[in-house]
Amino acid sequence: MEEINDFFETNRETWNEKVSHHAASEMYDLDAFKQGRSSLKKYELDALGEVNGKSLLHLQCHFGQDTLSFSRMGARCTGIDISDKAIKLAQQLNDELALDAHFICCNTYDVNKHISEAFDIVFTSYGVIGWLPDLKPWGKIIASRLKPGGTFFMAEFHPIVWMFDYLEEPPKLKYGYHQKEVIYEEYEGTYADERAPMTSKEYGWNHGLGEVVTALTEAGLEIEYLKEHEASPYDVLPNLVATENELFVTKDKLYPLIFTIKATKP
């Protein structure tokens, strides 16, 4: 467990360093966001629909753009993230935009130490579960924080995407779909700004779709759907091609880039 905590601390330090670079990046476009542009993408907007008046818990929220976008739509939002600098910026944005979201700095596994409220919606998206070594406690935390009849929704990069080493050119199929061993990567810059003057040091874990679904169903959730999508809303992988509807696909479309899951608590 001590080794896992060291991995988490390294990741936290890297995410802390990423915050200022991401806040200044074209990808996050903070100026447009402050002027009213939503950061939410088609998959989550289509899945969750009207959120006005609903309570929403956002796991691994980074510096809160999606959380605050839901808040603008009328949801009562709480966001959590492991990065204290991200949470500080999220709270600053909340205050600047005169919204009523609430932010807590904690590890995903420690949510129940900080939050006792049950929510209408639990949400997480895009590059989240790979930071967690074990999804069983993750599933239990989600179920414990949902009201009966509540909805869990996630949009995430497909497990096939994480089988490649993108530090190689061209990317090399290197990691196992069911790999249990931790994956360590060290590289210059960050996904939002490859020229950022920082070294990203990251420990991550691969999780197949079966593991994700099983973690949720064993926690008592009922899966409404599992969908796989060939298009990503983010241009964060090598050599993607833009589509007419502002999504990105691989040239050959041989495998999906995104999966989405919607589940309910009975």
UniProtKB/TrEMBL annotation:
<keyword id="KW-0808">Transferase</keyword>
<dbReference type="InterPro" id="IPR029063">
    <property type="entry name" value="SAM-dependent_MTases_sf"/>
</dbReference>
<dbReference type="InterPro" id="IPR013216">
    <property type="entry name" value="Methyltransf_11"/>
</dbReference>
<keyword id="KW-0489">Methyltransferase</keyword>
<dbReference type="Pfam" id="PF08241">
    <property type="entry name" value="Methyltransf_11"/>
</dbReference>
<dbReference type="GO" id="GO:0061542">
    <property type="term" value="F:3-demethylubiquinol 3-O-methyltransferase activity"/>
</dbReference>
<dbReference type="GO" id="GO:0032259">
    <property type="term" value="P:methylation"/>
</dbReference>
<dbReference type="GO" id="GO:0102208">
    <property type="term" value="F:2-polyprenyl-6-hydroxyphenol methylase activity"/>
</dbReference>
<protein>
    <submittedName>
        <fullName>Class I SAM-dependent methyltransferase</fullName>
        <ecNumber>2.1.1.222</ecNumber>
        <ecNumber>2.1.1.64</ecNumber>
    </submittedName>
</protein>
<feature type="domain" description="Methyltransferase type 11">
    <location>
        <begin position="58"/>
        <end position="153"/>
    </location>
</feature>
